[in-house]
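stage 2 :: seqdesign
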């Protein structure tokens, strides 16, 4: 033991005394055209040292011999606004590669405006309001985020946390189905393990934050480039691999065991690769004997790949690939089979998701470029509930295997006429292929249908095509006034429905590092394909019919007014008020409380027949954000959302939506304590408080009388549960050695073990209503090594 302590002490002393240096490399480009900017000046401030470089003819730069830790980067280029990037973190185990996008100055003879640091500005410069850029570092640093981009953005104003077991993004009271996922310009299916058909969230993200770059998140009135979405857009970007040096990562944490590599394919041509693979920690532990039975152990794995292939004459190509596979099996639990639909049954769930895409950026000249993508995606959801009684032959109560493929083509032309005028034109064509099979044992229905399996879905179709086109124009009158106008159109060939959607915004920059903005957007979204193809079963004839084929798109109008101000260089205050009017929402033809506005946040989505576009909804609210970016070793983020979300179904009564918690408050604070020079201790806390969950109202007396759950529709979503409260903590220790960086972290979810309501259900055996609670105190460990 003494020998071990001596060796450990000597190692620590060596690490502390050594002076470790690292490199910052990257490329400087015009933010609109992405054309390289040669002869830009790059300055790196690290402690008392000031280092610099000049970008070459390809816009590339390299600053070597920078001491590890935090540094500030400044980039200047004649005719462009200065670019400031503060608190860039350098580790000994990995070079820092940056893409710097500069904004061309608009300078009038009588006016010159000095802008504040560009912390938090979106990558898409057409966005004026309800948009925020986030970094990969935030997904790692924020307590309770677990390296998941979806959980990280739940800290932003307007986003509601509804379920600890899932990462659904519920924006301003809207259904999570209204979110559009995009990756490098490609529309992708639900990027989560165990993702249900028609949902956009799940328990574990397939997205690997080790490969992501800074990305944009929109919560309303988004630019015309984005279509087929109602509530928001998650526009994700991937970074390029290091094209000069091979680097590796190993990690174990919530998302699984992970190994990854990146490096040059050819140093002469600046081509690079990245590849990461993850496997479920719990599944691996189960396979090596840590669990006595495999019941309820989630098994999942995913892989992410990116190849970056620049050429001299034909632009830059890239290949991206993502694939995820997940399965879980529940055996009967106790006497009543808690996890299962029918007693004494086994439930198996699985999902698959894949994306393969090729992107291409071609520079026509120094003012215009074309960005195009070709992609194929795949999603498949399987469920099977069967008997496990030893004295009975196996009986299947319910089964589904629903698969959906999508072939996509996009192309975007960008032209910067001058420093004031920028125009975009774009198209997107998506061709869906579906193979749905979903059936339930007729004896399980109420009333029962004996001797047959009733099918809710049983369809194979191809070439269900959705076409989208858009144009947008940004005009900067001067350094203070910016006007934006866009038009998006889409047409769904399957049932010949379409929509034209105008978008506009105007922003005025005040002289005290503040701006005032207004934005309007009309948005539309097709229904999930399984809704169109859901089958109605006629008990009297035994025949099927599809009663939802003619559904139109659901539509929304967004109005947003916002004010932003940098109180200091590192503290930003944002206020936004909004109103959203939703219409043409599918509701049942017969009088009921059902509306698609409440769908999309569970492991199995509601399926109804005979739907019509008669539903309405409205959301309005006020949001406040006060954010201090990391400086002087600490940061904080305070967001408050006050809102109201109502809907009207076919019974013509206005009710709370399922997501109308009415308020959400998030508070985050973090402190990074340097321990000598090569260690850093990172402490982070997060508090969230919101209104309680709403649900359908269970009528206890009628349920006792019927022997099964009965609801009182007149009181649907009228009552909320106890307010939601959660305190999360994260503490991380980072150590830089000569050629590698190690990090240990402990995440604790629900530090106070507060009981937050998940759902209520009727227990027929006990004849009472039971409350089911969400995740209690839950510690989680992470270890990462970069070398």
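stage 2 :: out
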């Amino acid at each position: 033991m003494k020998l071990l302590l001596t060796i450990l002490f000597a190692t620590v002393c060596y690490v502390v005394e050594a002076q470790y240096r690292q490199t910052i490399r990257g490329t400087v480009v015009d933010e609109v055209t992405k054309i390289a900017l040669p002869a830009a000046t790059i300055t790196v401030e690290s402690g008392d040292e000031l280092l610099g470089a000049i970008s070459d003819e390809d816009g590339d730069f390299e600053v070597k011999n920078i001491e590890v830790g935090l540094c500030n980067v400044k980039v200047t280029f004649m005719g462009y606004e200065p670019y400031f990037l503060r608190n860039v973190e350098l580790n000994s185990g990995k070079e820092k590669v940056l893409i710097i996008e500069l904004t061309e100055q608009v300078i009038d003879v009588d006016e010159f405006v000095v802008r504040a640091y560009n912390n938090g500005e979106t990558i898409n410069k057409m966005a004026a309001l309800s948009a925020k850029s986030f970094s990969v570092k935030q997904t790692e640093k924020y307590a309770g985020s677990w390296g998941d981009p979806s959980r990280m953005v739940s800290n932003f104003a307007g986003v509601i946390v509804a379920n600890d077991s899932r990462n659904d993004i519920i924006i301003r009271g809207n259904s999570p189905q209204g979110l559009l996922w995009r990756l490098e310009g490609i529309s992708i299916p639900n990027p989560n393990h165990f993702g249900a058909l028609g949902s956009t969230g799940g328990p574990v993200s397939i997205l690997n934050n080790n490969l992501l770059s800074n990305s944009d998140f929109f919560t309303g009135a988004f630019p015309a480039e984005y279509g087929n979405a109602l509530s928001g857009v998650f526009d994700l970007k991937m970074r390029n691999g290091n094209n000069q040096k091979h680097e590796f990562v190993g990690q174990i944490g919530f998302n699984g065991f992970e190994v990854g590599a990146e490096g040059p394919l050819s140093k002469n041509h600046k081509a690079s690769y990245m590849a990461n693979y993850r496997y479920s920690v719990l599944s691996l532990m189960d396979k090596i004997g840590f669990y006595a039975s495999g019941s309820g152990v989630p098994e999942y794995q995913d892989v992410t790949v990116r190849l970056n292939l620049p050429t001299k004459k034909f632009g830059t190509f890239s290949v991206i690939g993502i694939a995820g596979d997940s399965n879980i099996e529940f055996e009967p639990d106790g006497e009543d089979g808690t996890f299962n639909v029918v007693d004494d049954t086994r439930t198996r769930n699985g999902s698959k998701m894949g994306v393969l895409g090729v992107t291409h950026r071609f520079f026509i000249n120094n003012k215009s470029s074309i960005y195009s993508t070709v992609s194929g995606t795949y999603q498949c959801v399987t469920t099977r509930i069967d008997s496990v009684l030893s004295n009975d032959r196996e009986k299947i109560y319910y089964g589904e295997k629903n698969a959906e493929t999508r072939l996509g083509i996009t192309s975007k032309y960008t032209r910067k006429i001058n420093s004031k005028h920028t125009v975009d034109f774009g198209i997107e064509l998506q061709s869906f292929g579906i193979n749905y099979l979903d059936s339930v044992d007729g004896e399980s229905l109420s009333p029962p249908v004996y001797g047959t399996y009733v099918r809710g879905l049983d369809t194979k179709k191809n070439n269900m095509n959705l076409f989208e086109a858009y144009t947008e124009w940004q005009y900067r009158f001067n350094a203070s006034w910016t006007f934006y106008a866009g038009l998006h159109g889409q047409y769904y060939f399957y049932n010949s429905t379409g929509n034209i959607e105008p978008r506009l915004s105007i922003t005025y920059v005040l002289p005290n590092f503040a701006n005032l903005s207004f934005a309007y957007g009309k948005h539309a979204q097709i229904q999930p394909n399984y809704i169109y193809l859901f089958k109605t079963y006629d008990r009297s004839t035994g025949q099927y019919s599809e009663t939802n084929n003619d559904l139109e798109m659901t539509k929304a109008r967004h109005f947003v007014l916002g004010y932003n101000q940098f109180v200091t260089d590192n503290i930003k205050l944002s206020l936004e008020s909004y109103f959203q009017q939703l219409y043409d929402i599918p509701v049942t033809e017969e009088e009921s409380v059902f509306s698609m506005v409440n769908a999309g946040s569970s492991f199995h989505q509601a399926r109804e027949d005979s739907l019509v576009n008669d539903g309405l909804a409205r959301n309005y609210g006020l949001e406040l954000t006060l954010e201090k970016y990391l400086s002087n070793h600490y940061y904080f983020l305070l967001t408050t959302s006050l809102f109201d979300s109502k809907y009207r179904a076919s019974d013509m009564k206005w009710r709370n939506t399922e997501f109308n918690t009415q308020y959400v408050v998030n508070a985050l604070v973090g402190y990074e304590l340097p321990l000598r020079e090569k260690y850093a201790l990172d402490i982070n806390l997060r508090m969230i408080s919101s209104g309680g969950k709403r649900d359908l109202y269970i009528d206890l007396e009628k349920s006792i009388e019927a022997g099964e759950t009965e609801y009182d529709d007149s009181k649907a979503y009228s009552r909320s549960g106890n307010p939601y409260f959660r305190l999360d903590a994260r503490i991380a220790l980072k150590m830089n050695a000569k050629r590698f960086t190690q990090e240990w972290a402990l995440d604790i979810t629900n530090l106070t073990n507060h009981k937050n309501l998940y759902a209520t259900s009727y227990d027929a055996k006990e004849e009472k209503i039971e409350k089911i609670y969400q995740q209690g105190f839950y510690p989680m460990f992470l270890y990462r090594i970069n070398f």
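stage 3 :: structure notes
- Residues 32 and 125 are 8 Å apart (CA to CA).
- The mean pLDDT is 89.
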